Each structure stands twice: as structure tokens, then as C-alpha cells.
Amino acid sequence: MYEGIGLGLRHPIAEALFAVPPAGLRWLELHPENYLARGGRYASMLAEARERYPVLTHGLSMGFGSLRPFDREELRALRTFLRGLEVPWHSDHLCFSNVDDVYLHDLLPLPHTREAIDVAVARIREAGAALEVPIAVEHISYYASIEGEVEEAAFITEVLERADAKLLLDVNNVYVNAMNHGFDPRAFIDSLPLERVVQLHVAGHHVRADGRRIDTHAAPICEEVYALFADTLRKLARPVPVLLERDDQFPPFEELACEIGRLDAIYRDVLGAA
Q: How far is CA 171 from CA 33, 73, 185, 247, in A?
């Protein structure tokens, strides 16, 4: 049911998406924060999406590096929402985004320390128990060197294994970090627990004049990310849902449909060969 290429359900493209569904599109992803306790156009958009496609959820606000336990009322509301959608897992980010009730509206990296591992494991277990669905964890892009006791891939692996969590592998995040910080993206992916991968993300990013890459989800996928996506699929050698992330600067919908078609062709070619 959850295989092939998906697209994020975003208000600016919903009308075009429903009017002329791309041939290679198999499912949709949504952010629960956009729909909880919200009616009107968002409620009707969600209802129409569910009539047409399987749906997966991807959170933006948990941040499994939070020092404080999650708000119980918010978890109850999210659990009810997820039950209604009957999702097989719920994903959010290995990061922090608030301190002392001040929300920063960004996904900030954790120090790679044993203490941070302990905190993330506790938050993931807490979320899984409260939401009553498996949790998938996405690693993030970051722009400053991260100090710590554990290298990044080992950090992610230990968190996943101790929390018994799934991995949402973001191919674009790996590529952006590799280019910005000077490591081999393929070797990095090889060092992750690929047996825990349940979903992939791919996206475009911005390249500044100085060569720095910024994860914007507001540009076409570059050739290097397409190639890394194909290599990652070969390593997995099994079907998983793959999301095309586009959150801003939306092109004419025909261009998004072409990206979906290219991803679908790669997916079929690689997994057919596998």
C-alpha cells in the first residue's frame, strides 16, 4: 500500500493535484500540525486526499531532542488524529526546536553526546507509547560543525536501536550535509542501519554564491541527488515510500509532475532490476 512516489499535500498545489493527478503518484504526506483542530478548506482538502490516496504523516514540532516531556494534551489530540488516518507509523525529527517554552521555528541539531542520545531515546519512547504507533526518525540538515563524543551515523544508529525506532532517510539532507561538511554521502548512508528504513525523502536545495547548500525544499532536485537516490534504492533493494518534498516557490504543476515521473522511472528501474 505504501510504496512508490508520494508528494506533500500543500494548500497551493492541492487544486492542481486533484484536477490532474500525476500518473506516477501513489500516496500523499501531510503535516498533522496543519490539520489538528482546523476546519474549512483544510478539512475538506484532507477528506478529498483520503478519498484518492493512501496518506502518511510527518510531524514538524516534536523534536526528539527536547529536554522536557511532551505535552500530554497535544499527544492525545495527535493520537486521535493518527488513529483516524490509520497510518502505519508517524515520523518527526532528531533535533530540538524549543528551549524553556520558546519555540524557534527551526530544526536545530543536537550535540553528538551520550546525554543527547539518552534524551532522544526517552522522547522517542514517550512518543511511541502515547501515540500507539511506531515512530520513524528523520535526521536533519545542519550548517555548523557538530562536536561530540560520537560521530553522526553512530549517533543516529544508537538512538534508533535503543529506542527501537524506524528511520526516515532523507537523501537530500545527506547530500547537503556531505557537500557542506566534506564527507562521502554514499559512505554515510552505508553506515546507517538500512534495515530500519521505512521511507525516503528527496528534495531540491539552494546553492549560494559561496557554494554553501541550504535545504529549502524550494527548488528542483539536482542531478547528484537523483543519482544518490538511485544508489540508496539499490542498497535497500526493497520497495519503500519515497516523498518528493516541495514546500515553497512552487513551479507550474506540470514541472512537479515531471519530477514525480522521473522519480517513478528510477524507482521502477532500480527495484525491477533488484
A: 24, 34, 9, 16
